[in-house]
Structures are given as C-alpha cells and as structure tokens.
C-alpha cells in the first residue's frame, strides 16, 4: 500500500489521480492533499478519502475547511506543501500543482527521496538545473505525468542514453490549429478553452492554443532526459494518438500510443515499473480511426514555441522569465484583461528586457520570477 500526497488535488490532474486511487484501493491511500482555494471541490474529496493532512493556499481557506470539517489538520501555503511532501508517512508525491509555486515542494520531495509523479512542468521551466542537480544528487527519478514525457520515458525503457538520436514530441495544435494568424486577433476565451482532444485545466488549455505548452514541454524534456535542444523536435499530430517518440541511432523509432486520457500516464507514474488495469474501459481502436496525420510545425504560426526554444538555449534565468511572463499573461487573458495575441507580445517584451543570469541560485530565480510578474502585470 502506497501512501500518496496529492499536490494540486482539486485540479484536472489531481482529480484524475483520485480516479486512479478509487480504481485501486488495495494499492493506494491518500495520506495528504494540497489545493488552492476551491473548497467546494475539496470537501467531498476530504470526506471520501479521509487524508490525515490537508494543505490550502491561505488562512481564509483553512478557516472555510475547518468550519465544515472540525478537528482537520490543515496546513497553509508553500510551507504546508513542503511539510506533506517530506512527511515520513508519505511514500509518493504527486506534484500536480499549477505553476512555479510547486518548486519548493519539488525540491523538498527530492531531498526526502520520495517517489515523485511529476506533472508540474512550470517548475522545471523556471529552475530545471536546480531540480535536476538535486535529483541527481539524491538519485531520485522524476516519473513524468505529462503524456509526451511519459511516452518518451516508456520508449526509453531499457535503452542506452548514448543510442538516442532525438526526441520527437507530438502536439495536437490546440483549439486554434485551423485558424490563420490573422484570424487569431479577436478570438474569445470560450473558444480558446475548447481543446479538440484533451480535457485539462484552463491554463494549460490556453498554453496549448498558443503552443507555449509545447514550448514548456521541450524545456521539460531537455531537463528530464538530459537532451540538448537541437535533438528535440516537435511535430503536429492532430489525433493525439501517438503521445511522443524516440528516434535511435539505428533509425529505429519507438512511439507510445494510446487514447488521450491523462489517467494512463498518471497511473503509470504511480505503478512504475509495473502496470495495472486502467479505470477507463476505452482502449485505442486504430481501425476505427483509419488514418493518423502529421504536419511540420511552423515557428511563424506559433511564435511562442520559437520563444521557448530560444529561451531554453539561452538558459539561466531566461526560462524563468519565459515561464513567469506566460503565467501572468495567461491569467490576464483568462480575466479578459488582454487579448489572445497580447499573450505572446507580453512574453516577447519580457524576454527582450531581460539580461540573462547564468547558473542562478534559488534566491535569484525567485527574485527574477517576482520581478517579471510585476513587470508584466504593470502593463495593464
Ligand atoms: P488546474 O488548474 O486544473 O489545477 C491546478 C491545481 O493547483 C488546483 O488544485 C489548484 O487549487 C492548485 N493551485 C493553484 N495555485 C496554487 C497555490 N498557489 N497553492 C496551492 N495550490 C495551488 O491545473 P491542471 O491540473 O490542468 O495542471 C496542473 C499541472 O499539471 C500543470 O503544471 C500542468 O501544466 C500540468 N499538466 C496538466 C495536464 C492536464 O491534463 N491537465 C497534462 C499535463 C501536464 P484550486 O483550484 O483549489 O485553487
Ligand atoms: Mg503534455
């Protein structure tokens, strides 16, 4: 029986993690859960799974939880997420919190040598070198939950790193894949939130529409698989059936396929290295699909992807700026304060203004993060 701490419990990945736990009560027990402010979603989960510890974003939310469930041990903020991540009783940390706010808990879980099911890509984008340094030092593997990275991780099973030629990430193209750049000028939030294949949280759905999600994933792949940017390709694949591939030096390509259902990669990260039956009965039916499509990715059509590659190659604090500017710009778009195309403009300006600092320590990263957020917020 593995005891799990779920960070980001009320989100899209968090809720699907509970589905996996429900399907395998003999394997998993929810020891702790952390969320932001969504008490209405959290309370029924606390009642159903009886975690010993709960973490919330602020004191008001703590009061709201304790009003409904008296004598509940409720911790607050980043310190709370760190505490449940290193808790002696926690075996596995599922890090599915949204944004670089998950960084400290990630570092803490690594230092406590926990099994980590890792969805929180913004953390690797903002401070990949620090996270991977610690992971190496403590010999901890981040088990990827992001479907592309789970696919690559599976394709690399049993292979030698020196035999890898390149990683090929697939991307569906997001909600606006069939629109030209001119048509993007006045698209609505409602349309941006309609992803053709995947059901995900609001921020990552917008990131998919701008293609920044694939950019963040390129940086995530760079760190997780210690692969130079030149050896990471992205191609459009609108069905999202091939979740990603690895090409080896003998030209052999290994791909991982499946239906677009995050419970697959979530469960694999929890049961690795073995597999279990998946709660959903729907398996991949290639005959039903008939055809799969592939298309070259265009940097002109998707400038966010280009910015992500460039920021990744620049390294240091450049990806911290990329991530922070993107987090704020997407939040402003979701609050209807800026237009869809403003997202990429805001990020571009933030990157242009920044003088990169090489090999930043945690303090520098946190300072650049705060500074970038303030600069981008000030623009509206
Ligand atoms: P959601 O927006 O659906 O959920 C985010 C979760 O994080 C919520 O539980 C939210 O709490 C919590 N949260 C946000 N801010 C804070 C904070 N300051 N302190 C504590 N908790 C906080 O996001 P997703 O589930 O879509 O994504 C989560 C992560 O997984 C992201 O990094 C994303 O890129 C990655 N990912 C997601 C995929 C998906 O299918 N959704 C696929 C691959 C990767 P609350 O709502 O209660 O405020
Ligand atoms: Mg993904």
- Report the bound ligands by name, code or SMILES: NADPH dihydro-nicotinamide-adenine-dinucleotide phosphate, magnesium ion
Q: State the distance separating the first and last CA atoms.
A: 50 Å
Tell me, rounded to a whole number, the average pLDDT.
Answer: 97
In angstroms, what is the radius of gyration?
Answer: 20 Å
What is the level 1 CATH name of the largest domain?
Alpha Beta
Q: How much strand content do the residues show?
A: 15-25%
Helix content: 40-55%
Number of distinct helices: 16
Strand order of the largest sheet: 4-3-2-1-5-6-7
Number of strands: 12
In short:
The protein is of the alpha/beta class and 380 residues long. Helix content is 47%, strand content 16%.
Walk me through the structure.
The protein starts with a strand and ends with a helix. Helix 4 runs parallel beside helix 5 (103-111) and helix 6 packs parallel to helix 10. The chain is 47% helix and 16% strand. The model has no long low-confidence stretch (mean pLDDT 97). The protein has 2 domains: 2-140, NAD(P)-binding Rossmann-like Domain (Rossmann fold), CATH 3.40.50.720; 149-261 and 299-314, no CATH class. The chain is of the alpha/beta class and 380 residues long. The strands form 2 sheets. It has a 7-stranded parallel beta sheet, with helices on both faces. It has a 5-stranded mixed beta sheet with strand order 11-10-8-9-12, covered by helices on one side. Bound molecules: NADPH dihydro-nicotinamide-adenine-dinucleotide phosphate and magnesium ion. NADPH dihydro-nicotinamide-adenine-dinucleotide phosphate is lined by residues 8-14, 34-38, 57, 96-99, 101, 119-122, 146, 198, 200-204, 262.
